[in-house]
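Hi D.,

Good news: the full-assembly prediction came through. Inputs first.
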Amino acid sequence: MADGVHKGSSLKRVAKSIEWLCSAFAVAGGLVLCGIAMTTVVSVLGRKFLGGAIAGDFEIVEIGCAVAVSLFLPYCQLHKGNVIVDFFTLKASPAVQRWLDALGCVLLTLVAMLMTWRLGAGGMSLYSSNDQTMVLQVGTWWAFLVVVPSMALLSAVGLLTTIRALSDDSATPDRTLTREPMS
Amino acid sequence: MSGPVIGMVAVAAMLAMMALRIPIAISMFLAGAVGYVSVSGWIPLLGYLKTSPYYQMSSYSLSVVPLFLLMGHLATHSGMSKALFNAANVALGRFRGGLSMASIGACAMFGAICGSSLATAATMGQVALPEMKRRKYSDALATGTMAAGGTLGILIPPSVILVIYAILTEQNVAKMFLAAFVPGLLAAVGYLIAIAIYVRLKPGSGPAGEPLAKQQIREALLGSAPAVVIFVVVIGGIYGGIFTPTEAATFGVIGVAAIAVVNGMRWAGLKEALTGTAVSTGMIYMILLGADIFNAFLSQTQLPQTLAATIGGSGLSPMTILIMILVLYLVLGCVIDALSMILLTIPIFFPIIAALDFGMSPEHTAIWFGIIVLIVVEVGLITPPVGMNVFVINKLAGDVPIADSFKGVVPFLISDFVRVALLLAFPAITLFMLEVF
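Then the structure:
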């Protein structure tokens, strides 16, 4: 009994830390995007008025974008941002919906683990082949130091959301406002 | 099994997974990955996944997407919506149905800063709905206006879906934006006409606004100036070829952030904008990653080419085929969200369209088709059963029955269909801007 309570609370602690990490990753990713924006604005103004852009500004955008996007992925899954089609299961019982959602989360976890593994291997081989960007001559593998941990966190979030889908607490945050992608 | 058959089995499996609430991105990824293995084997797939997801995330042409999203999320925290509504009210408020018209005008302007349709509807709705309630506008008209007004966000550049369409079909993003401009204006004007007719058919549903004092007019116009400047810099810069869409978006981000800070955005607001960007960017890139695998597999199966050849040789007229495809989009758009639909279907449908002769250059065909598809998929945002825009606005309004809101959308839907018919009949409406610039 006591063991069960203890287990429950340590699971909660793990969940809390995962949530905190997701938020931290998301905010960090957003700040990286802001950084890209500032660098590019300075570079364009320099090109127009001072006769010189920041060297490798395109590469900064590319690396920064990959880093920011991967930092966003765990937070997006935690907040049920990944779009589903609910039209065909609207009439299904809540229990069936929960099981299907759990299945979706499990599959997402597997995909995230596969990506962690493959991108990890990809980063290693880019490191050993000394792959560099054209202008800045920065090793491409540096970006993988963020991308791979983000994918690992996404796998962990996938597990967490699976458990949450199965457990009865319907603390499902409203996602109507966050669901639509398009601009 | 031959390639095209494997392709069709994979498409069916993917649709089945989607129907069972598996995230769209994951359905595409799994169907694509399993298909890839069955066509080429394990080793090529594992090799493909080593770097391809990274190159997708670091693509320069896609980098405009998170930046536009960030700009839109900052705009919702910038206090600009109120200023834009006031400015539109100065111009349109005195007419019957004037507050509705002002809302459409404000949505069009806000849509020029924020590409998201839901965000446009929700942000402008917070400002406009209370005003319309105060002036005793009918619930149907008020909520219908805001739900439809939001769809202007997709059509009026900058538009994330247009960027993705352009990348999928290898078109120039700047030209896509240029072509979308007149149809976007036409959409706004069409909605104004719809309101004018509606308030005449249903007198009392939308009384004219109060006359404004000179002081209010000046304040309203000054208040909207920063938004106009940002739009001119971002979109004008792209049109004029002064900078790439990504560079333009970075100016937009900095400009909107500056306005937001001046209007009182602090760390909490910034954090909300950043995490909001995280959700909408994460969602789009997950789908992009899934679609990347799926489309890599699909092109190996030769399914798109086979389909294009079969349909091209069917003897149907190009216009009939085009309309059949648009009807399919309309139906699909009622259940699947627009971006997933574009990513899923364009690799299959675009080769079909490209193989048909509409009497214009391949580039013009691609751009024209893209703009019309965009309008058709956006209609799904305001039709039952999914109609996300309608649900969001209905919730904002509080005590309005959902059926009333869907009824209020009908005039705007009619306007949408008229516009699609016009654009189909007169491709020049879409294409003449390309000649001008």
